[in-house]
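Apologies for my clumsy wording, but are you able to produce some protein sequence, whichever is easiest, and the tokens describing how it folds?
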Amino acid sequence: MEHWVVGLFLVFFTLELAVEGVLNELNLRYIRERCGPEGIPDDFRGRLSPEEYRRSVDYALARGRFQRWAEIYGGAVLLAVLFGGILPRVEELARTLAGRWNPAWQGPGVLFCFAVALILVFAGLPTDLYATFGIEARFGFNKTTPGLYLADKAKGLLLGIVLGLPFLWVVLTLMEIAGRFWWLWAFAFILGFQLLMIVVYPTLIAPLFNRFEPLEEGELRDRIEALAARVGFKTGGIYSMDGSKRSAHSNAYFTGIGRAKRIVLFDTLIAQMPVDQTLAVLAHEMGHYKMKHVRRMLVLEGALLFAGLYVLSLLLDYAPFYAAFGLAPSNHAALVLFSLVSGPAVFYLGPLLNYLSRRHEYEADRFAALALGDGRAMEEALVNLTVKNLANLTPHPWYSAYHYSHPTPVERIRAIRGWDTLRRGATAPLSA
């Protein structure tokens, strides 16, 4: 039966690789066909120079060419881990190292899961390094020094030890002692852990990587506070973040839930945008909270977690599932194998999740337009972000559906103009 397991996995794996490859090639050809000045979308004519447009095209093409080889490399790494004898050797080493541990500490299982995760992190370094110090540096975005890069990786490893090892211990212990319905207990624990991380991330974890300072007094802060009060958005503070020490890309976001919510502005955004545009970006983010998008996505992610743990519970006692990859049945082997082989199976959920996310983006844009009285500031902010971040203006529609969690800038601007037209029509005086 293990041959059926291997065959089924390889079918899903090959389909994913083929779909990704075809979509990427379609996207690259679609972009090349529109690389000249005549390819600039009508909504950006006069707002984007031919040189800026050509630069955004070159950036999109460079990333697409890199993605072509990164997908192949990632697939080769996954196959090597699953079928190259790595997993049995790592498990044997984990059992040897944890041989003197008290069984209650789940030593072999914790070490095995952590070691496999570490192997995948190190295997991903070549593509990560090239993306950071190759493509991003070539187009003027990367500001990360080698020292800062290494420090970030070291901090990430430390967090993995401090948070990840106890997390694995609890999950493996629940799998061992909680009986037939262990997956329900694991679901409750993992969901609670995720919510806790959302609360503590802004104040305990994020400051390990960036410096956050209260936004200084002035027009921007005053108008943000006035907007938040007008729309009924309560926040635990407004902060600027030194995003420029890693990248020239600009952004703004909200983090945390409840009283732990923070408004965070990249220093690059503050430097690149007028106050009206910055306010529009924040109004958009407030819209996500006010329209309960964050809560909806948490519920959806919880449902997917619930379903995933249930499927894992069905596979837990299925011996061919382990034999297909050279392992003996165990709770830790089930966790690792399921995390590795489930990717190709759930890959096809991407378009559905992106569809929901894109709907939320449209709704948040509309909220911002209504909160500010019209959509002009939001439109100008989108143009500014597009130009500064070299966003791809002409992705292939299929590629966009599969990979873009946000509508394209052109789609968003047209939607905003449509709402403004409807609003003005609804408020215009009736003629005789």
Remarks:
- The longest helix spans residues 50-83.
- The beta strands are 212-214, 238-241, 252-255, 262-266.
- The radius of gyration is 24 Å.
- The CA atoms of residues 277 and 380 lie 7 Å apart.
